[in-house]
Structures are given as structure tokens and as C-alpha cells.
Design a protein that fits this description.
membrane; ATG22/LtaA_families; Growth Hormone, Chain: A; transmembrane helix; 450 residues; transmembrane; 16 helices; mainly alpha; globular
Length: 450
């Protein structure tokens, strides 16, 4: 990004952070997204989570429950902790001027939990170790994301929020693709992988966890060097933890009185973001059970889906800076609903490849534009607090899409479970339609570009 000097627009508040932003700073920030895919793609979605279900537990039912039930309980506990703690961690990092320090702390803890997963052998006795580490990692990852997202106004100019946010999301998708392919070729596919690693005792998967931890640590370092720490907030906001909760309640009340639009956006985004998460969560299940893809093809589809989502986030991030984030989100939600409707009646692998990829095309832009929408309406110097609320509201609604998918698939069939996801996306779109767009931020002669 070329150096630029921007002043506050007459239609928008001034943003916090430096007015001159360079390409290397944006790249350093985006590399954290690239590295964090080690947790999201490898640990949660495609490698270690399935290993816990198939390798660690298998057909056993510890405590009378299946592995999926235990993982669901672990996720619930993690979500509850995030909902209770994320807002004050954001508020306290803003007030103390510790945004970068907190990002380093939470990222380091995620890396430690990933390293700890090396101890999880493919025996049911190790389930509880896996559950504790996965829950802790999920909590630390959310907290790290609060500090990371709050840096967005620091690494962009008001007129480039959309394209920088889209760049970050695309880096996350591409990083996940690249790391998955490395792990597959190096450790998962061969009988004897790199360094003589085999599958005995689940060693190949456990080594993948270690490799992914190192990957995350390496690519998280640039942002900690390139993005400066902000000065502390006013003394009135540097308070104890119990007082932080009281301050949070006061701030939410003031926010609702001053800017109800931001509150309604938090609630609307909680709905459709739950639907976005469900697209990837249940996509592999539907690909196998409904559309006839085999397991190896699903992995290939997963790589293609991430590529498409990344390109969508990157391309529409540029468009967002011209038309605003709300239009991008609404167009994306409509595209998702149309694709869901077609898939409800379509059959066969070919149709799934076409409309499944179209479905994924709209996920990236919706996620990226949601982040930049919030960055545009967050009070200057309070971005961490707002993204803490963003994480909390997202967690508060995270049961809706899985619950409705289970309801419709249980009453009818796996195919009809798509209706549950579509209903959540539709509810989010309707709620968002009542939210006003953030102030238009136009690029003047001095505005930077990414």
C-alpha cells in the first residue's frame, strides 16, 4: 500500500491509528491470517478434529456419549467462555494500549495448545486431553482474533478498509489451502512420511499438529513487528476486571442510545455469520451423504472451495470500497440463498461441484465485509471492545444453524437439512436490511490504496 495521508471525512469519524500505511504493513498484518489457518483449517476442520472422532475414539463411547457429542460439548464450553470474556479482553487491551501485546499473548497460547496435541495418541483414554486442548485453543484463538481484527483501522486508510479486510480473509483461505496440501503430501497420504513419520499411534496426525503450530508461530511474527502499539486510553477506562464488566454494561447502554445501528448490525451479523459457518461445517457431510462424493474427492473439493472463497473476498473487497460493505454482504447473502435453493433440488457430484463452489464464492466476501463494516462504525480507540462484542454476539447465535440443520435433517433427510441453514441466512439478510450503511468513506487525492 502506498503511503498516504488521510484526514477525517466530513461524513465519517476520524479513525485511530497511523494515517500513512505501507504495503509491507498490510502484508505483515495479512500474514497473521495466513498463519492462523493452521488452527482453523488443520486443527478444527479437516485434520485433527476428524482424527479425534475416527482415530482417538472410533466406535467407543466414553461415558456413554459419542465423540461428536463430546466435541459438541467442548465447543459449547469454549463458546460460553468466549461470550463471557471476549468483550472485556477487547476493552482492556484498548484502554491499556496492549492490543499488540495481547495479540502476541493469545497467539502464543494457541501455539502452545497445538503443540500439546502431540500427546494425543489414537486411544480413547486420550479423548479428554484432546477436548481440553481443543476448547482452550478455540478460546485463545477467538481472543487473538479480537485483537487482530481491531488492528484493521491501523493498517488501512478509511477508503481502503474493504480491500484490506478482503486481502486478510483471502490470505487466511490461501494459507489454509497451502498448509493442507503440505500436510497431506508430507504426512497424511504416504505410508512413511517426511522424517520417517508413520501412522502408528496417530503419529502422522500428531506431527501435523506440531508442524501447524510452528507454521502459525512463524507467520504471526511479522504483525508483531510491523504494526505499532497504540497509546493507552484515558485513565477512566483503565480499571480492574470487575469494574471492566460494569464499564462494559455502561458502554453497551451508551452505544444503544448513541448508535443503535451498530447494535442492530451486531445482532444481524450474528445470525448470518452462523449460517456462513454452517456452510463449511456441513458441506463435507452433505457432499458424501447426499451428492455422492467420495472421501478423497471431498478433500479436493475443500481445497477448491477455499480458493473460490479467497478469490471472492479479494475481488469484492475492492468493490466494497466503492459501494460500501452492506451491499456486498446483502449480495453475498442473496447469492448464498439462491445456491442453497438450487442444491436443495439438485443431484449428483457435478451439480454439487458447480453450486457448492458458487455457495463458497459468497462466503468470503460476506465475512470480509462484515469485519470492515464493524471497523467503520467502531468508535476510534474502541475497536478491540467492538470486536469483542462481535465475537460474543456471534457465539450467542452459534447454535441456530446446527440446531435447525439437525431438526430438518432428522425430520426429513440430510438434503432437507439445507433448509435449516438457508433459514438462518434469510433471517440474517432480513435483519441486515433494516441496518443503515456506515458513513460513506470516499477516496480523495491523498487516500492510500492497498
Amino acid at each position: 500500500m502506498s503511503a498516504a495521508t488521510t484526514g477525517p471525512s466530513p461524513t465519517a469519524p476520524a479513525r485511530s491509528g497511523p494515517s500513512a500505511v505501507r504495503r509491507r504493513v498490510v502484508l505483515a498484518w495479512g500474514l497473521w491470517d495466513w498463519g492462523s489457518a493452521a488452527y482453523n483449517a488443520v486443527i478444527t476442520s479437516f485434520v485433527f478434529g476428524p482424527y479425534v472422532v475416527r482415530g482417538v475414539v472410533g466406535d467407543a463411547e466414553p461415558g456413554g456419549w459419542s465423540a461428536n457429542t463430546w466435541l459438541g460439548l467442548s465447543g459449547f464450553v469454549a463458546g460460553l467462555l468466549v461470550a463471557l470474556i471476549a468483550p472485556i479482553t477487547g476493552q482492556r487491551s484498548d484502554a491499556g494500549g496492549h492490543r499488540r501485546r495481547n495479540l502476541a499473548l493469545w497467539t502464543g497460547l494457541v501455539v502452545v495448545t497445538m503443540l500439546g496435541l502431540f500427546t494425543v495418541r489414537d486411544e480413547p483414554a486420550y479423548l479428554y486431553t484432546a477436548l481440553v486442548l481443543l476448547a482452550a485453543g478455540a478460546v485463545f484463538q477467538e481472543f487473538a482474533g479480537v485483537s487482530y481484527n481491531a488492528m484493521l483501522p491501523q493498517v488501512s486508510t478509511p477508503a481502503t478498509l474493504g480491500r484490506v479486510s478482503g486481502f486478510g480473509w483471502s490470505m487466511g483461505y490461501f494459507g489454509g489451502i497451502f498448509l493442507l496440501l503440505i500436510c497431506y503430501v508430507g504426512f497424511i497420504a504416504p505410508d512413511v512420511g517426511w522424517f520417517g513419520v508413520t501412522s502408528e499411534g496417530g503419529l502422522n496426525i500428531r506431527v501435523v499438529a506440531v508442524f501447524s503450530a510452528v507454521w502459525f508461530a512463524v507467520f504471526a511474527l511479522p504483525v508483531l513487528v510491523a504494526v505499532p502499539e497504540l497509546p493507552p486510553g484515558p485513565p477512566s477506562r483503565r480499571v480492574s476486571i470487575p469494574q471492566s464488566y460494569r464499564l462494559l454494561v455502561q458502554d453497551v447502554r451508551r452505544l444503544f442510545a448513541r448508535d443503535r445501528n451498530a447494535v442492530w448490525f451486531l445482532l444481524a451479523s450474528a445470525l448470518y455469520r452462523d449460517g456462513l459457518a454452517a456452510v463449511f461445517t456441513f458441506g463435507a457431510i452433505l457432499a458424501v451423504s447426499v451428492y455422492g462424493l467420495d472421501q478423497s474427492t471431498v478433500l479436493v473439493f475443500g481445497v477448491a472451495a477455499n480458493v473460490v472463497a479467497a478469490l471472492g473476498a479479494l475481488a469484492l473487497g475492492v468493490v466494497e470500497d466503492r459501494v460500501g460493505p452492506k451491499r456486498i454482504i446483502m449480495v453475498s447473502l442473496v447469492g448464498l440463498l439462491v445456491s442453497c435453493t438450487v442444491l436443495l433440488f439438485a443431484s449428483g457430484p457435478t451439480m454439487f461441484w458447480i453450486f457448492g463452489l458458487l455457495l463458497c464464492l459468497w462466503v468470503g466476501p460476506a465475512q470480509a465485509s462484515s469485519r470492515s463494516f464493524l471497523a467503520r462504525v467502531a468508535p476510534p480507540g474502541r475497536e478491540g471492545e467492538m470486536f469483542g462484542l462481535y465475537a460474543t454476539t456471534g457465539r450467542a447465535a452459534s447454535f441456530l444453524a446446527p440446531g435447525l440443520f439437525a431438526l430438518f435433517s432428522g425430520l426429513f433427510s440430510d438434503r432437507v437439512g439445507i433448509v435449516g441453514i438457508a433459514l438462518v441466512l434469510l433471517a440474517g439478510a432480513i435483519a441486515l436490511s433494516r441496518v443503515a450503511s456506515p458513513p460513506r468513506l470516499t477516496s480523495g487525492p491523498s487516500a492510500g490504496s492497498s
